């Protein structure tokens, strides 16, 4: 779930996707988030089924509260995203006003999912490790704690990637003009040719004007000599 959700977050930040159309990236972004939502629903059903089968109370821990809150907000955001960004009914002003809310809520939900996963890891270790106990730091506890630290580092790296301004997807009209270093963007050659032609015409007119001025000076000098 975390890997699919993080992929949906950074899909716009990968430079090799900038040459793809923005609508295609929207579809990929929506597909990844829909897949993450399906995984989340399946995991919730599995947890409730396991609790009921083992006679374990439901929704009593902070881990379960935060997880359910994340699921509800994620489903609401996914519905709004489909209605506003993918369907062609929402005006541009509504999309522009909702975009900052969409970005902030996405980061908040991602952070909430990471916190839920870390609390779930700790809760599972406390109830599962009895002999030796979790407090004695057995190898299993150390291993799972290291996985939790790696999960936290992974989340920080994802948030760092999406906060870098140089990794922001360029505007759609500029994305097609991106070329490797030393290359010439499309359309520049034609523009350069037209500019060179205009400059050449100006230079030609300047030379003709200079020649005509010198010719007039010669005629004036010839007229003055004849008068004298």
UniProtKB/TrEMBL annotation:
Residues 1-163 form the Cytochrome b561 domain. It catalyses: Cu(2+)(out) + L-ascorbate(in) = Cu(+)(out) + monodehydro-L-ascorbate radical(in) + H(+); monodehydro-L-ascorbate radical(out) + L-ascorbate(in) = monodehydro-L-ascorbate radical(in) + L-ascorbate(out); Fe(3+)(out) + L-ascorbate(in) = monodehydro-L-ascorbate radical(in) + Fe(2+)(out) + H(+). Residues 172-228 are annotated as: Disordered. GO terms for molecular function: metal ion binding; transmembrane ascorbate ferrireductase activity. Its EC number is 7.2.1.3. Gene3D superfamilies: 1.20.120.1770. It comes from the Eukaryota. Residues 211-228 have a biased composition (Basic and acidic residues). It is a multi-pass membrane protein. One of its GO terms (cellular component) is apical plasma membrane. The keyword Cytoplasm does not apply. It is found in: Apical cell membrane. Residues 186-196 have a biased composition (Polar residues). The keyword Electron transport applies. Its main location: membrane. Its cofactor is heme b. InterPro entries: CYB561/CYBRD1-like (IPR043205), Cyt_b561/ferric_Rdtase_TM (IPR006593). Keywords: Cell membrane, Electron transport, Heme, Iron, Membrane, Metal-binding, Oxidoreductase, Translocase, Transmembrane, Transmembrane helix, Transport. It holds the Pfam family Cytochrom_B561. The chain crosses the membrane at residues 27-50, 62-87, 99-121, 141-162. Homodimer. PANTHER family: CYTOCHROME B561-RELATED (PTHR10106), PLASMA MEMBRANE ASCORBATE-DEPENDENT REDUCTASE CYBRD1 (PTHR10106:SF12). This is Plasma membrane ascorbate-dependent reductase CYBRD1. The gene is Cybrd1.
């Amino acid at each position: 779930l975390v890997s699919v959700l993080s992929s949906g977050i950074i899909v716009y930040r990968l430079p090799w996707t900038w040459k793809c159309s923005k609508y295609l990236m929207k579809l990929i972004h929506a597909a990844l988030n829909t897949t993450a939502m399906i995984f989340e629903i399946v995991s919730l059903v599995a947890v409730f089924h396991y609790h009921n089968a083992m006679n374990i109370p439901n929704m009593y821990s902070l881990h379960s509260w935060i997880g359910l809150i994340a699921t509800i907000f994620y489903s609401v955001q996914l519905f709004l995203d489909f209605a506003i960004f993918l369907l062609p009914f929402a005006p541009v002003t509504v999309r522009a006003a909702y975009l900052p809310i969409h970005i902030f809520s996405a980061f908040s939900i991602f952070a909430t999912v990471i916190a839920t996963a870390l609390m779930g890891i700790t809760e599972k270790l406390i109830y599962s490790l009895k002999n030796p106990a979790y407090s004695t730091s057995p190898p299993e506890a150390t291993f799972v704690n290291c996985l939790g630290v790696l999960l936290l580092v992974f989340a920080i790296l994802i948030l760092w990637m999406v906060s870098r301004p140089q990794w922001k997807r360029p505007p759609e009209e500029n994305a097609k003009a991106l070329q490797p270093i030393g290359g010439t963007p499309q359309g520049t050659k034609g523009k350069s040719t037209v500019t060179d032609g205009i400059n050449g015409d100006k230079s030609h007119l300047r030379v003709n004007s200079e020649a005509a001025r010198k010719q007039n000076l010669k005629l004036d000098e010839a007229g003055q000599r004849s008068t004298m």
